[in-house]
Design a protein that fits this description.
11 helices
């Protein structure tokens, strides 16, 4: 909980209105007379996330509130009601997700739709790892190897979650998923661009010309990375998978593309580590090639087209960064971190272009 900060200017929530609505809607969680404290989690680049602490005679109870940012167009990436529904479907299945508590579709309450879920205590690895994590240099390589294996096996297990006959089946159509993803992210790039980045135009054309056949239809997270995992303090287990706003039914190997794009190695450009993704460059961590091999072993899937999925992942992450950067250029966000994303977009485009030319991870 310690990484929550005071709410940023322009992103503050009316705590009085929130408390009144919660006390009326979920009085067992927020009884009348309880005090409410709201702070904001500073990390993340998409939906806004807040720590909501409710205090009464039972002691403090921690929840997390999610709402879309200002200046976004409608779509599944910011549909918090849809994300709530996914959590509600996954929680009874034993998938490690926070317990969903309540959703509000009325933007009049706090200025946007939102939902509340329980706060899962644990360790999220982002940016510079805690000193206690790297203190034992001799044990670190083994720890990172185990953590890498846990990461990839959790993704493979997620892709094995039963979908047929559950509410999850309505999330999307697996047929034609690869084609829709390539064309869809290309259109998003064209709509969000604020500068000419020829590398990304070339990558978009290459992806369209080199689309592999479908490899199945499963539940895909679409943003699976360490930032979105709550780990046990000893990092031996995943307590919760976060940020389900882009989840759907689709090709599992396309879902692998995002963690590959986020998986920074020692020799990668420093700009990638500046995004807080450098945990995977610590000694003992899998390389991208090892990650692909481990996923293939855990899932039984053919990994021969892995460079395509890696290039796609880089392209998608670049487009997401560009969409956020465009909001900054338009003055729709007060988050100073977004000012550097134009440079990040260019670096991701160059990295993706190199993959299309060399076919390497």
């Amino acid at each position: 909980m310690t990484d929550a900060i005071a709410m940023r200017a322009g992103e503050a929530i009316d705590t009085v209105a929130l408390q009144a609505w919660l006390a009326l809607t979920v009085p067992a969680r927020v009884p009348a007379g309880a005090t409410l404290d709201v702070r904001q989690f500073p990390a993340g680049f998409s939906n806004l996330t807040y720590l909501v602490t409710v205090a009464d005679e039972r002691g403090p109870q921690a929840y997390v509130l999610r709402r879309p940012p200002r200046g976004v167009t409608p779509g599944i990436a910011h549909d918090v009601g849809r994300e709530y529904g996914i959590l509600a479907a996954l929680y009874p299945l034993g998938v490690p997700v926070p317990e969903p508590v309540v959703r509000c579709d009325d933007p009049a309450v706090i200025g946007a739709p939102f939902y509340l879920m329980t706060h899962v205590d644990g360790l999220i690895l982002r940016g510079t790892p805690p000193a206690t994590f790297v203190a034992d240099a001799a044990a670190l390589p083994t720890r990172m190897a185990v953590l890498s294996r846990t990461f990839v096996e959790t993704l493979a297990q997620l892709h094995a979650v039963p979908v047929e006959g559950t509410p999850l089946a309505a999330l999307g159509r697996p047929e034609g998923y690869v084609q829709r993803q390539v064309s869809g992210w290309t259109k998003r790039w064209q709509a969000a661009r604020t500068a000419h980045v020829p590398e990304l135009d070339a990558v978009a054309a290459w992806l369209e010309a080199n689309r592999p056949p479908e490899s199945g239809g499963v539940l895909v997270h679409n943003d699976f990375k360490f930032d979105n995992l709550v780990l046990s303090p000893d990092t031996s287990a995943v307590r919760a998978i976060l940020d389900w706003e882009m989840a759907t039914i689709g090709d599992p190997l396309m879902d692998l593309g995002t963690p590959l794009a986020d998986w920074v190695e020692v020799g990668d450009a420093p700009v990638f580590r500046s995004l807080g993704l450098g945990i995977t460059s610590l000694p003992g961590s899998y390389t991208r090639a090892q990650l692909v091999q481990a996923y293939g072993e855990a899932s039984g899937r053919d990994m021969s087209r892995a460079p395509f999925y890696y290039a796609f992942g880089l392209f998608k992450v670049a487009v997401i960064a560009q969409q956020i950067y465009a909001r900054h250029v338009q003055g729709l966000t007060a988050d100073a971190r977004f000012a550097k994303l134009g440079t990040v977009v260019a670096a991701l485009g160059e990295a993706a272009r190199q993959v299309t030319q060399t076919g390497t991870l």
